[in-house]
């Protein structure tokens, strides 16, 4: 039997705290979502002054990264390169800012962020993941 890591409650809080700290240090008003490997929401926080729509987008980015087993930016690039048929895929957050949490090659969850430029969203997500010390 093969065992694999999972995101614990403590992991989720560690990731969230680091992501919030990174966003605040840069004065970025964002929403941060954390999901498990099946895309189920474990954490959602909309910082002061973040637009309401960012809550929906952050969750969608996180789910896309978790279910797709890759950064949501990959899907955005595929579409930008002309493969518009990919818009029919059952993923709604195909924009940069969703980053999977990977341990020993297994995706155990993902972080999605929305509210600033897409590369900044992704930087916040990565700052959270780094706090786990897994990659």
UniProtKB/TrEMBL annotation:
<dbReference type="InterPro" id="IPR038084">
    <property type="entry name" value="PduO/GlcC-like_sf"/>
</dbReference>
<dbReference type="InterPro" id="IPR052517">
    <property type="entry name" value="GlcG_carb_metab_protein"/>
</dbReference>
<dbReference type="Pfam" id="PF03928">
    <property type="entry name" value="HbpS-like"/>
</dbReference>
<dbReference type="InterPro" id="IPR005624">
    <property type="entry name" value="PduO/GlcC-like"/>
</dbReference>
<protein>
    <recommendedName>
        <fullName>Glc operon protein GlcG</fullName>
    </recommendedName>
</protein>
